[in-house]
Each structure stands twice: as structure tokens, then as C-alpha cells.
Write a structure and sequence with these properties.
The complex is a heterodimer. Chain A is 35% helix and 30% strand. Chain A is α/β, with parallel strands linked by helices. Chain A is globular and about 50 Å long. The two termini of chain A are 26 Å apart. By secondary structure, chain B is α+β, with helices and mostly antiparallel strands. In chain B, 53% of the residues lie in helices and 18% in strands. Chain B has a 6-stranded mixed barrel. Chain B has a two-stranded antiparallel ribbon with strand order 11-12. Classes of the chains: A alpha/beta, B alpha+beta.
Chain lengths: 230, 409
Amino acid sequence: MSAVRCVNVSRIFRQGDLEVTGLDNVSIEIEQGEFVCLVAPSGGGKTTLLNAIGGLDEPDSGEVWVGDQRIDKLGKGKLAEMRLKNIGFVFQAYNLIPVLTARENVEFVMQVQGVPAAERRAKSSAILAEVGLQGLEDRRPAKMSGGQQQRVAVARAIVSEPTLVLADEPTANLDSHSADQLMELFVHLNQEHKTTFVIATHDQRVMAYARRIVRLLDGHIVEDIRQQAA
Amino acid sequence: MRAVGIISRLAWRNLWRNHRRTLIMIAAVSVGIWAMMFMTALMRGMVNDMVRDSVKSLPGHVQVHHPDYRDDPNVANFIAEPSGKLLAALNEKDVVGWASRVRVPAVVSSERESRSVTFVGVDPARERAISFVAADIDEGRFLEDRADSGIIIGRKLADTLDTGLGKRIVIMSQDPDNEIADRGFRIVGLFDSSLQALEESYVFTGIETAQQLLKIGDQVHEIAVTGTGFRNIDPLYQSVAAAAGPDLSTLPWYELDSYLGTMLGVMDGFVLVWIVVIFLALSFGLVNTLVMAVFERVREIGLMLALGMKPVMILGQVIVESVMLLLIGLLIGNLLAYATVVPLSGGIDLSVVAEGMEFFGASAILYPALEINDVIMSNVIVIVLGILASLSPAWRASRYQPIEAITKV
């Protein structure tokens, strides 16, 4: 079964009289366990497509399916529930809630899901160790580096074992060493947990890790290639 | 319910994110609550004092009369002394005291002046328990028995009549046959009331002396009954009314003194208005604080929505934050009010403005009264209105589109 399926998805942004095409009849299918990069120059449509897949933005037309659920017509509450159960997010910045510690940030989604405290604690400890943040559980984001913060965000994205992780420019604010570490972590999690990763980026280093690269330009998919990952 | 823990934790920590702003708001809420409760305690104290003084100054809590007496306080509109069912009702445990009285309009004359007064014949033993006169004797003595032929008058009246203790005055009234009933009395006591009007308009003698003068046998004009408190007298009123029967007129104090009854109702309303007005002033600060807090956290709110937190949980988070702030303010405000009112429970001397106070029927010493009902009402109003005031910023926060909020600069 497909992890994600978009059928003729279009999204037009209006700013006064000006219309900007975000997506134009885009169709794409991503299988469970794939590691996909959406690549495009700024304004090319990669983030718009990512947001449509994540139910963060409603397309003007077309269908968006996550697993066997069509999500483009869901209400706010149902969309939130779908994201909570199925999708882990890693954003470019402002990924963490500043008043919560690393552990509490990781536990956030599980707590909203209603996972019991003991189970949350065990899972968050394990995942923080897995992303190399053992000993930093009680630090707040302001006391962590950008790379560490992104790792916490990744830990939070995968701790509740979603079927799909969506990452938007996850390495944009990281130095090359931290970026490599983060991507290796993604690959490891993809292989270990069979989680589907869809990453929007224009970072060549990130693309090197992907097994499938989908190129967009002006809201169209112009290339969809599979490659041997680094 | 599953997200209560995380909502509370986020609300609490966000509350202290800008601790200076939060502390200022808590201080404002605390002072507001303190002002609400302290002023309410002063007003309650004044009203309680007015009612107590008034009730003690003759009416009692419930009175029984001839049905026509209130409209026409004629000597002929008398009733029998309590007996049978009425007497049994007056001896119930919720009756603190009762007294029957002869009470008619009369003219009092000294050698120099005359004044119209209310001439009251009392049973001294019973009257001591329920009215002010015995305790307020300033000079001389109180009446000794039902047949005491001395007279007690107010100091103010004595000054007006240019008379004094030991001197003689003449009381003139009418008997049931419309014949003049008059006799001389020696002043055996002067009373000093907190209400000047009482000093000027009432004179007291033994009930049997009055009955004899007015030729009404052992009849009386009113039976005054005092219960345990002036606020909840309806059970007492109903019990006495039932025992007195339909042929007699039984009235509670708030109908006997409709001005005072209305005043009490107005004061209750005023307390409510006062609490709401203070809250409205507070609510501007509260809403501003919450709007700022939400505005500063737009991206986080977007993130939480993106991660799967439902809009209703965001709404709840802002409201819980507001409630936490209010609860801290309420706690401090309540403690402040308690700490301010308790040391003043011995009374605040307002003798500087005593004449003005007396105009309202209050005495010169004001006893603040912090009543549990007022405390509960203030706290509940602040919490309920606080939640209502928080709804707008909370609603706004919950309506953000996640991706727009996350990317907001």
C-alpha cells in the first residue's frame, strides 16, 4: 500500500490580484519505507507539496491520501488527529517548544496521544539515546545547539512510530557536520524502523542520502528518479 | 482529558515566561480582589450595623399587630397579650426573645416645650433581651417592672424639652373613647442611642402604667419577636404568622421598615455592581496580557497544531493560563483582604463623619464584615468573567492555520 498518494493536486496562492501557482496538477505516489527528497528551487513547490501531504495546507483541487485515508477534505480536528497518529514533522526552524525540556518535547506528541507516563518515559529515553542525546534530556532548547535541537525534533517525530516523517529543509540551519549526522540518523531510522521519509530540500548533501529524488519546478514535477543512496 | 497534563504544564510554564508581565498582572488582580472584598466588607459592615441598630431599636425581626394598626396607630387598634398557639410559638428555640408593648402617638410637654413622640409601655424584663433601651441608659436607671411609673426619654429629647433626670414631664394621648388621657411622669432615665432620631421621638414607661393611662385593660399594640439573625428570618416569620393566625397582621422587619429592607437589597446589588466594575477594569489588563502572550507564541502554537494538538486544546491552554493567573491573584487578594479586615474587626471609628453616617442610619463605629457569601461571590465572578474575557484571545490562538503560524515572522 502507498504511504502517500497525490492525484492532480493543485494549489494557487493569491496575493491581491496576483496569483502564484504553488502546485499544478501534481500526482505522485510514495511507497511505504521509501526515502524521498523533494527538490526544487525556492518557490518551486516542494514545501507546498510537503504541506499538502502533511495536511497543513488544503489544496484547491485534487486528492491527497495518507495510507488509506483521504485527507484533503478533512476538518481541522480530524486533520490534527490524522497528523497526531500518522505523521512526524521536522521543520527547518522553530521546531521545539521552548518551555519544555528535550524529554518533554519528545514526549509531547505521546502525551497528546494519551500514552501512559511510564511508557512515555521509557520511549523518550530510548529515542533520545538513539539520536545521541543521552544526558541532555532535561535541557531546554535554548541550552542546546542547532544540531541538538534538530535531533530532538527528529526524536519527537519518530518516537510515536508514525508511518510517515515529513521534513522541510531540516539541515538549512546546520553546519555540514551536524547536517551529515542528522541525515545518517534519518537513513538509520528509515532502515531500522521502515519509516517513510519525505524531505523537502535543495541541499545537495541531503539529496545524496535519498534513494528517490523528485524534482519540481514552478509547481510541476519535472523529474522523478531513483538512485543508489550514499 | 488525555491532554490535561501537557496543557497545564504548558500553561504554567508560559505564565512565567515573561515573569515581570505576569507579576504585574498578578499584582493588579490581587489589588483588585482586595479592593473588591475590603470595600464589600466595609459596605456589609455598614449595612449590618444599620439593620442591627434599626432592628434592635424596636422593631425586632417580626412584629404582630392589629390588622389596622400599621395604617392607623390608634390606641383602639390593640390586640390581646400572646396566649395559646402564639405563646407556644414565641417560646420555640429559634426565638431569642419577645416582648409585647403598648405603643401610641402622644405629646410630651415639659415646663417649657412640647413635642410629639411615640409613647411606649414596655415589660422591662422582656425588653432587655431584645431592644436597645436598657443597654443605652446613659444617666439614671432603666424601668424596673411592668408597673414602673417612671419614664425614660432620650437625651436629645431632654435637651429639646429643656428638662432632665428627676424632673417631671406630662404625656398626653387619647383613650379608646377618644377622651384625653394624660398624666405626669418623673424622668428616671435618659438613654443615648446611636441613632439620634430615636433619642428625639421615643419615651418609655412600664406597660401596666401605660395600659392604665390609656384605659385599655391588659391589651397591647404590638408583639415584637427577635430571632437569631436578621438575614434568614423567613422561617421565624412563617412560624409566628401561622401561630398568630389570619386575624392578626404579622410582618417581617424588612416590611416593617421597607426603607431598610430596600436599602439592604440595593446594597446587595451595589456590591455586585462594584465587583463587576472592578473586574471590568482588571479585564483590560488580563485580555491585553493574554493577547500579548498569544501573539508572542504564534509559531509555537502553529507547531503544536502541526504536531496534532487539536484547536480545542490550544483554546484550553490559553484559558488554563488565564485561570492560573487569576487563581494566584485571587489567593493573594483573599489573603490581603483577610489580613486587612481582621485587624479592623474591633471597628473603625468614623466619629469625624458621624453625623453624615447617621443620616444613613449607621453608627459612628464601622465594623467591617467579610462574609463568606461575598468572598465566594467575588471569587466566582472573577473566575467566570476571567474565563469569558480569555475566550477571545484563546479562540484567536486556536484558529491559526498551522503552516501560516509556523512561518509567521
